[in-house]
Fold this protein.
Amino acid sequence: MPRSTDRRHRPLLLLSLLALVLSTLVALPAPTAQAAEPITDPIPERPAASGIGLTVEEYASFPKTEPTPGPVTDPRLVRHARINYLSELPDGSGRMAVPDLNGKLYLVEDGGTPRVYADVAATFAPAFFASSGLGQGFGFVTFDPAFKRNGRFYTVHTERASDTTAQPDMRQAAATAYHGVVTEWTADDPAADTFSGSRRELLRIGFAGTIHGIQQIDFNPTARPHDKDYGLLYLAVGDGGRGARNTEPQSLALPHGKILRIDPRGSDSANGKYGIPAANPFTGTPEALGEIYAYGMRDPHRFSWDPGGRHRMYLGHIGEHAIESVYEVRAGDNLGWSEREGAFAFDRAATDPCARILPLPEDDEQYGYTYPVAAYDHDPPAGWNCTSDVGRAIVGGFVYRGHDVPELRGKYVFGDLVDGRLLYADASDMRRGSEELAQLYELMLYDESGERVSMRDLAGDARVDLRFGRDGDGELYLLSKANGRIWKVTGARKFASCDTDGARVTDVMDARNWAPVTPAKWRFPGSEVVLAEAGVQRPGPRRPFEYAVLTAGPPFGSVRIDAQVRIDTPVEITNRDVIIVFGYQSDTKFLYAHLSTDNTIYPHNGIFVVNDADRVRIEDQWNGTTGAPPAITDAAWHSVRVVHCPGTGEIAVYVDGSKRPLMTAVDTTLTSGRVGFGSFDNTGRLRGLKVTGAPVAE
């Protein structure tokens, strides 16, 4: 696309020197004095249980590869195969492209067998480098939307500066250690199973460090031939690992910490190898790079467009100290790094490494930063050393518009690349400019046999190295570097969805239907079951101090318990709680849901099993520090539903009519029993009890 030609013949060395000078002059916000106390828990709200489990089946398995040229000193690079994306070729063939950071580009067809289409590492040897830095090597591949006709596709790879005589088109202020190289390939026969054709270098960017290079290059798949965005190439360029110490991500004179947008068919760039779209936001800004689409980023890792509605662009942005963010990115946006991390001030000069996250200043609006639409924090365990890696990093995904999983339609599905958690937010809740982040929900997984698993189970490793892919129909795929496998998401199931429509027990408020631990502490006025006096600890394993078991009706296997509960003592007093008992077999063998105002104390607001031993906390939401959000925060009546499916061990607890469970757990040890109600050391009430499910003969 046309633009002014004042930079077309500018010497590259002069451009680089000018960029270094301007890096401290262009687009930097005025410093703001910070006197506020640092924030240690910036996003206390954790992802909630979704109650949705994705079913997956293995799609492909890739051969083991090694980083080249070696040696490798970082154990995080020792993976089975460093596959990091999956996309369908835009030619109607159904072939899937999968890059391996170690150097191979694979194509996969319906049979699930990968074949090497091109050896990127061998093509660029000996300069090709993949032996340090998590993103080094053959980072990404994307295919021209008209690939079927023109055979063009694009790759990005890294080279060690000392191994090449090539000079970068742009570079950071510090000495260049590595190059990120974008290459255009043209296949002689786009339908061929292996590449044969020509290539040309499009752009070469110098980086001072081994991390946060060019993470993704891609075309907007929602753009059609008549759209201005059609055929334009986006590049997510990281800050080279240096933004936490300087202001380069804020400089419009450098490409680092930016999303760039270029026209591969043009020629008005400084190196004459690509064009700069006239619609880019800074083409008219003096001394700014016209390639920049948005800026102020640390590690813009994965971006995608929502194919529904307004075709919004979403970016998964990996944080530095505490915040993993999702942004809706528009032309000209400044995401704030390294003046901001997420929606918080970031103090680069802090002498205490634990004191870098601060509240926003009162004059924040003047800077015009764009803040996340969804985010989660690192949620470190107690006693965590803030100078170490807590093991959290977002991997961006996709807004699902496919057909196989209607439960996900309209939801932005993403995850944590380290621990493999799968998350989503409703796209309609991700609103730019809102003071509220979109609520995040955690997804479960089921394998082909119907067994509940985690990504760590599927990957066979605590470090999953999760990535996402999407095919031409909008269906989702999960990838793991740990074992070099890909799984297709084939459907979804509701957690704890067993048949509980059998026998029914109701209208049981009379005292003769209950067996309390201490009868003198209980009252049965006819419409309620009342624990009138607090319980006291008893000998034996730790378990609820006081409860009453329902003796009316049979014991149940699969069961649904519906009731209303209330805490009588003021909720301002800590440790208030009531419990719902189920799977009761004896005083030392039962399950219970603890409904409390406190989710930070071990025996509160969780699901527990007592099995002839001290209680064990089993709900998924407990991370050793906090659990699910408080179940009850006042002295009003609250509806509660507990579903127990002994066949799978799945347990779900719902509060106040929510369709999503507050707590979930799996226990396969206690498969049947009676239900009950009680507390530990305070008083409470139950009414409106209805128990339905499969009876078990006594």
In short: The radius of gyration is 29 Å. The mean pLDDT is 93. Helices lie at 12-22, 120-124, 147-150, 455-459. The chain has four helices and 44 strands.
